[in-house]
Amino acid sequence: MTHWIILPLILPPVTAAVIILAARHLIGLARILSVATILALLALALGLFLSAADGTITVYRLSDWPLPFGIALVLDRLSALMLLLTAVLALIVVLYAIATGWDMKGRHFHALLLFQIMGLSGAFLTGDLFNLFVFFEVLLIASYGLMIHGGGERRLRAGLQYVTYNLLGSTLFLFALGTVYAVTGTLNMADLAQKVALLPPGDSALIRVAAILLLLVFLVKAAAVPLHFWLPATYAETPAPVAALFAIMTKVGAYAILRVHVPIFGPDMATVGGLIGQWLLPAALATILVGTAGVLGARRLGHLAAYAAIGSMGTTLAAVALFSPQGTAAALYYMVHSTLAGAALFLVTDMVRAGRAGDDRLIPGPGLAQTGLVATLFLLAAIGMTGLPPLSGFPGKLLILDATRASPAVVMIWAAILGGTLLAVIGLARAGSTLFWSTLPGPGGPPLPPLALVAAALPLALLVLLTLLAGPATAFLQATALQLFDRAATIAATLPPEAIIGGTAP
Question: In the chain, what are the domain boundaries?
Answer without folding.
Answer: 2-499
